[in-house]
């Protein structure tokens, strides 16, 4: 956003002086291969220059040759913005683009701007490309709560009727967004979802409880999305944990989960794994934020054991897992209970 804003201001300033600047925005997520990327750049230059002959090559050599001609033809700065530059399959192609004047292919030069969230991207490049991209680096820190508060206030003024937000709503949304790596999209989504929740309860005022419900709901949706894509064995372990927790209403031990897991494997006709592998699955689910796994000491003689509890609503977890056709027998059995 910052790059687009600044380059648009540069283009406008140049136009006011009777000059022209061409800005080409390349989204590397979809244009990761060199050949289609060069075709896109050439076509963008053609569209901006109007009088350029349309001649887009098929091979990389032809595309580059035509690129040199277009750069030579245009009498002004050309800015190439590579967004998500770390997605390029061959990032060292940037070295070829940036050095076209230095290598004698054209009399003009181009400005290359790379944008990435990958802080290790630069370290993985070869030395020649580093010297090109490393000429001027700009690190943009995540938004803090105060900045997010300003962003949300601007959005809220456009989205909501005046006086429909409780005083703590925007600061709380901003605080939650700041906790999520300063992501403005997250903060905006929480504010929007808070409005939906207030609307569902027929309230004309968005309150703090709506914000907290929105945050919890978004976290649950993320967890359920993760659960839906888990392998069958991992789902079986999670079902065992959810069922035991639902019965006990408290954290359960690994041994209890394994016994329940064996029963589930028999119902859905899946070959069970050893207890050690089940512990591995529980660890993976803990890393994913679906389960909480805590070590408890029984004392010097009785040793240490794990207690486990789901971090998401067990009913929601079961609903997602039972949509898997492999758990059809378990679903029918639970419906009969």
Estimate nothing, just give the exact number of structural domains: 3
How would you name the oligomeric state of the polypeptide chains in this document?
single chain
Give the terminus-to-terminus CA distance: 55 Å
Biggest β-sheet: strands ordered side by side in the sheet = 1-2-3
- CATH homologous superfamily title of the largest domain: P-loop containing nucleotide triphosphate hydrolases
- The gyration radius over C-alpha positions equals 28 Å
Which strand-content bin applies to the residues?
Answer: 5-15%
Roughly what percent helix? 40-55%
Largest sheet geometry: 3 strands, parallel
Which CATH class of the largest domain applies here?
A: Alpha Beta
> What is the N-to-C order of secondary-structure elements (H for helix, E for strand)?
HEHHEHEHHHHHHEHHEEHH
Low-confidence stretches: none
Tell me the CATH architecture of the largest domain: 3-Layer(aba) Sandwich
Shape: elongated
CATH third-tier fold name of the largest domain = Rossmann fold
Description:
The chain is mainly α and 337 residues long. The protein folds into three domains: 2-133, Rossmann fold (3-Layer(aba) Sandwich), CATH 3.40.50.300; 145-225, Orthogonal Bundle (Helicase, Ruva Protein, domain 3); 229-336, Arc Repressor Mutant, subunit A (Orthogonal Bundle), CATH 1.10.10. The protein is 55% helix and 10% strand. The chain has helices at residues 2-16, 34-49, 60-73, 93-98, 127-133, 145-159, 169-179, 184-200, 208-228, 232-248, 254-268, 275-287, 314-321, 328-336, and strands spanning 22-27, 78-83, 111-115, 252-253, 291-297, 304-310. The strands form two sheets. Strands 1-2-3 form a three-stranded parallel β-sheet, sandwiched between helices. The protein has a three-stranded antiparallel β-sheet with strand order 4-6-5. The chain is elongated and about 80 Å long. The two termini are 55 Å apart. The model has no long low-confidence stretch (mean pLDDT 84).
